[in-house]
Amino acid sequence: MAEKIDWSKYVQEQDTALTTEVEKIDIKEEKKKDEPNKESAADEASPAEVSLLTKIIRKGLVSNKNDLEIQRQNPNSPLHSVKTFEALNLNPNLLKGIYDMGFNAPSKIQETALPTLLAVPSQNLIAQSQSGTGKTAAFVLAMLSKVDSTKKYPQVLCLSPTYELAIQTGEVAAHMAKFCPEIEMKYAVRGEEVPRGSKLTEHIIIGTPGKVMDWALKFRVFDLKKIIVFVLDEADVMIAQQGHQDQCIRIHKELGPACQMMFFSATYENDVMEFAQAIVKNPIIIRLKREEESLDNIQQYYVMCPTQDHKYKALTNIYGTVGVGQAIIFCHTRKTANWLAEKMSRDGHAVAVLTGDLTVEQRINVLDRFRGGQEKVLITTNVLSRGIDIEQVTIVVNFDLPVDQNGRADCDTYLHRIGRTGRFGKHGIAINLIDSSTKHICKSIEEHFNRKINFLNAEDCDEIEKIAA
DNA sequence: AAAAAAT
């Protein structure tokens, strides 16, 4: 993720890659072959043009007045905020769904983002807001409002980086649409199948990149050109992370020129934001300043653990203090996660483990059990670092600190991980287990966010309990 | 290193 993106080069590479792919697939549909490609090629600004445009915007239109930093590229576009959901003129059944979810008034990001998301004519948005501040509900509301349920084909596409997050977003959408039974949804994730040659009739597709690409570009069970709203959740990781980037950009490039883009994340590295601006036309941008990125309601600690045994001991002490809450423990590898889970289970601690080497059935099972409180502790990898919303999680433990391929601190992943607690203003605790070789990583995370990470003695259970209380 | 697509 920390890799520099040479996106100008990337955009060109994608062009040729896409062309060959389309030709291969469309071999029998000769007549259509040339048109769409010509269109998109002519439509696309050259990298130099985009770069220039981006620079102008960044120089000229940054406002520092509010704690949300908003860049306005199109002077005619609406940029006001709403204090109530009523002010949005929603379908009454949708409004009913929102209140049924327990929302009373829009959160800060919802106040600012919703007028833009619902604007007519449609307006692109790149938004940043801290974890647990209501981004999902914001774009789900927009997704549901923009659908024309009389048209029986997919019009809204939402991409998530993981299976779990796609399902969670779908569940939020299902709840919000509780009184709008005419709106239909389809998951495009592992384990879902569509008969070959058939066409999807659902209005909304929520999925992960691989399956969406399969369905849209290989089997053609729906038409990306007919998508009017494209949501990219965890957008920074989707456009910048090796493995997701390729698939997402490919899908993105097949969308029609009028498709509304909604990009959301809690983090955007500078060059990732630049890339996002290069692929989203005339966006309204909501961006946080560095000092606002981290949440003050999450207290951060580190524990010195000279050996793996010390780490384990510290963890069992923490385990004893979880109380009514729940804890998520992050490991760097699946192997460590599985090893740790097995060791804790053998020692009589009830723990759940979730990694990418489980089947999708197992994954949903484990998460459902944890959501239901069947286990107090969940051991996992970065698969659950982003987006997962479980209110009862009071403690996040980094058994291993998040690092990038070069072994340097992965500050964005750190922020996302600790953001699994402290949802919607609640208190949360993050505990980092470190040794002399990883202390500098902890230090650079501390400096990056300018937020104190305090020393904690893991033997002092009273201390931990006091914090947890 | 992990994730996402089946194979």
From TrEMBL:
Ranges of residues in domain Helicase ATP-binding: 116-286
Main location: cytoplasm
Any single GO CC term annotated in Swiss-Prot or TrEMBL for this entry: cytoplasm
Extent of motif Q motif: 83-111
Organism: Cryptolaemus montrouzieri
Name used for this protein in its record: RNA helicase
Enzyme class name: hydrolase
Pfam families: DEAD, Helicase_C
PANTHER family, alphabetized: ATP-DEPENDENT RNA HELICASE DBP3
TM segment ranges: none
EC number(s) reported in the record: 3.6.4.13
